[in-house]
């Protein structure tokens, strides 16, 4: 089966002429020779651009490769712009598998004999179908939520087997590319496939997705910006997820949004605010915010609210990365390239041995032409892409958390400009970032830290007298131990000094005895000197071997 699948992949690549996408001089002679021997598999799409051919090839290979193309579309640091733009158009439309089979999978996962024991109105026909899972609708039958409309997401049958096989082939292909491509070190094909494997396997675990959804729901509880549907955890398994069903408008259905009178300017600005709130307030962000996963509530069109779904991919930032990223953004707003360069070095993203002046000059060269345009015409996401590309020329290692952030920011900015083309993301984001930075520094940060730690100190306060007594007692014991140790050290030093003196005496006696013998002095004098040398040497040896206490 693996050989058959490998043959299918090779035939597809040649059918769409993907061998011509890689310059011939990069390919080893054995690969070029193999291409000539497969003359019955010609390129049937010579009239199409390379990016289009890559996209069509991945679509024909199936869902695993489609998702791989979607991920690659975010890695504009690795691909030419024309190919990256085409891969961004990949649509994950997959033929559904039979609803009866989905019902059986749900029953097996939940350990029930018949689906109507837990759900009413189960719809055998799927509501939606994607590469990894498909969705059915139903109504809860029991408990406090009885009568609530829900969706049931179920993983496709045998998907693990298909994905595992294709991932192994991808890893083999990546190893070949890493070995033979001259730019293999920068492109890092092995690392890209490894990153994709991790992302894809995370998406296969619906229990993980449920946990992500619950966290995001807590973060935006009672928020006017974003609503996260409720997850019914007691029905959730690794292969099944039950979630509140929403009635909303797809965010890319601009015509319907306009008909409903949605304030498009506010909607676009709120999208930006949602992104920065997730990143800088919560350090936990939805990292797959493409239009298929974002909806708009039908309520309050003058104060529109987003609704998010599909939480298989999330990103996180630690405190240091978050602060450096905010400072980078603000430095860019102020066109302070020196600050940007220094921040990259201080954060450890760029090695300390890099010349800051040269790095600053490179950043200015890339970014200054961008700032000659009106702010509303500048792509914030692409500025970030250019920054990372420039930094990599100065040995900046790929930061996975920043790749996810970059991808999400590109989604958010593209979405915002679709909703409201005049969106000035810079002016929308700058006040938020400045406010966040003020909260991280100065007295506000001190007050917040006290508030955050107050419960901990309140819990520890009754224990303080005991802890203080234990600390003082331990200090007294430590002092006694140190005194004893010092006394032992001093005694050992004295003992060693005495041993050294005996050693010097032995050496002097040995030299004297030798001189007496050379000068042919009386034998009894030479014998006395030798005896004294032996006695002194024995004492010295005894003292050096004596155990110190």
UniProtKB/TrEMBL annotation:
One MF term in the entry's GO annotations: ATP binding
Database matches in InterPro entries: ABC1_dom, Kinase-like_dom_sf, UbiB, UbiB_bact, UbiB_kinase
EC nos: 2.7.-.-
Major localisation: membrane
UniProt record, GO biological process: regulation of ubiquinone biosynthetic process; ubiquinone biosynthetic process
GO CC term, one of those recorded: plasma membrane
Topology versus the membrane: Multi-pass membrane protein
Domain of life from the UniProt record: Bacteria
Boundaries of every ABC1 atypical kinase-like domain copy: 90-344
Active site: 288
Compartment(s) of residence: Cell membrane
CDD domains the UniProt entry points to: UbiB (cd13972)
Membrane-spanning intervals of the chain: 499-518, 524-542
HAMAP family xref list: UbiB
Biological role: Is probably a protein kinase regulator of UbiI activity which is involved in aerobic coenzyme Q (ubiquinone) biosynthesis.
Recorded family membership: Belongs to the protein kinase superfamily. ADCK protein kinase family.
Protein name: Probable protein kinase UbiB
The species this protein was found in: Pseudidiomarina salinarum
């Amino acid at each position: 089966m693996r050989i058959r699948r490998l043959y299918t992949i090779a035939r597809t690549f040649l059918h769409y002429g993907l061998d011509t996408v890689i310059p011939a001089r990069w390919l080893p002679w054995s690969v070029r020779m193999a291409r000539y021997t497969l003359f019955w598999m010609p390129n049937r799409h010579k009239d199409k651009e390379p990016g289009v051919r890559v996209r069509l090839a991945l679509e024909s290979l199936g869902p695993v490769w489609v998702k791989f193309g979607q991920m690659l579309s975010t890695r504009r640091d690795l691909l030419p712009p024309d190919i990256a733009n085409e891969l961004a158009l990949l649509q994950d439309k997959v033929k559904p598998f039979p609803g009866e089979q989905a019902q059986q999978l749900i029953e097996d996962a939940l350990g029930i004999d018949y689906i109507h024991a837990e759900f009413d109105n189960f719809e055998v026909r799927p509501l939606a179908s994607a590469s990894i899972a498909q969705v059915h609708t139903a109504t809860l039958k029991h408990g406090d939520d009885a009568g609530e409309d829900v969706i049931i997401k179920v993983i496709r049958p045998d998907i693990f087997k298909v994905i595992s096989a294709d991932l192994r082939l991808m890893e083999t292909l990546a190893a070949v590319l890493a070995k033979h491509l001259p730019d293999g070190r920068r492109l890092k094909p092995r690392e890209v496939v490894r990153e994709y494997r991790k992302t894809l396997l995370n998406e296969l675990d619906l229990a993980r997705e449920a946990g992500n959804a619950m966290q995001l729901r807590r973060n935006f509880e009672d928020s006017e910006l974003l609503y996260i549907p409720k997850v019914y955890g007691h029905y959730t398994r690794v292969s099944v997820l039950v979630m509140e069903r929403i009635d909303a408008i797809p965010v890319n259905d601009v015509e319907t949004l306009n008909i409903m009178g949605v304030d498009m300017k506010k909607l676009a600005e709120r999208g930006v605010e949602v992104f920065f709130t997730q990143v800088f307030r919560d350090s936990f962000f939805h990292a797959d915010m493409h239009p298929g996963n974002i909806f708009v509530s039908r309520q309050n069109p003058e104060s529109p609210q987003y609704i998010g779904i599909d939480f298989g991919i999330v990103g996180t930032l630690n405190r240091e990365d978050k602060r450096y990223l905010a400072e980078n953004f603000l430095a860019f707003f102020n066109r302070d390239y020196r600050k940007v360069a220094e921040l990259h070095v201080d954060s450890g993203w760029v090695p300390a041995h890099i010349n800051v002046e040269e790095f600053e000059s490179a950043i200015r060269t890339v970014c200054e032409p961008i700032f000659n345009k009106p702010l509303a015409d500048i792509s914030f996401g692409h500025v970030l892409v250019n920054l990372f590309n420039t930094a990599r020329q100065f040995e900046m290692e790929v930061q996975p958390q920043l790749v996810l952030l970059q991808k999400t920011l590109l989604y958010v900015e593209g979405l915002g400009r679709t909703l409201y083309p005049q969106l000035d993301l810079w002016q929308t984001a700058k006040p938020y970032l400045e406010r966040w930075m003020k909260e991280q520094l100065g007295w506000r940060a001190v007050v917040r830290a006290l508030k955050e730690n107050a419960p901990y100190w309140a819990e520890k306060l009754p224990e303080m007298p005991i802890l203080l007594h234990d600390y003082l007692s331990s200090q007294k014991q430590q002092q006694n131990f140190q005194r004893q140790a010092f006394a032992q050290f001093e005694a050992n030093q004295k003992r060693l000094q005495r041993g050294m003196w005996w050693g010097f005496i032995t050496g002097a006696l040995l030299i004297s005895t030798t001189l007496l013998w050379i000068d042919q002095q009386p034998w009894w004098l030479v014998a006395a000197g030798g005896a004294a040398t032996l006695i002194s040497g024995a004492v010295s040896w005894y003292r050096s071997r004596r155990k110190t206490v």
